[in-house]
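Quick one - inputs below.
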Amino acid sequence: QVQLQESGPGLVKPSETLSLTCTVSGDSISSDYYWGWIRQPPGKGLEWIGTIYHTGSTYYNPSLKSRVTMSVDTSKNQFSLRLSSVTAADTAVYFCWDGGSHWGQGTLVTVSS
Amino acid sequence: DIVMTQTPLSLSVTPGQPASISCKSSQSLLYSDGKTYLYWYLQKPGQPPQLLIYEVSNRFSGVPNRFSGSGSGTDFTLKISRVEAEDVGVYYCMQTIQPTFGQGTKLEIK
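Output:
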């Protein structure tokens, strides 16, 4: 069974870079799936951040594109998210996702000094 | 951006009664491969979303058959034939061509 698990700091200072990693188990990240990140500010709806294929091709939300970088590490069966120049508006639960039915449990990232 | 508009934003339903949620997209979700990439998810409190319906009308594995999806082009509907207490949560439609979500519809039990 496919499982996804987010990891990374729960607190990031304003203007710094948020970095998260998603570890995939039960499936190879080099499969035909694409992988993605989605976030949810407290009490609000879902926002797609971006998608990455195992080839490394990426597609980002236009509203975040200038600050987002996603990458994949096939040797570790992981993919990662970097979001630069964060503000309080980036405080959210961040989910990794396999493009379909499998989601990580989510990790809360708070942006605060 | 493709804008997804859900109605209603909240529903209060008596157990055993039906429920229906509408999702309209600002442009057609019919892709060049002939598929329509419209999904329905349910997010229960404190949990990640769970997939109910994929590609408009395909029920995901393990999803009760009281859930059904329909529609085409820009207009889509999720129906619950007989609501049960375990169906409470927020329902989201999502398109995956240029991924965006609807605002969510909160279902509660009367």
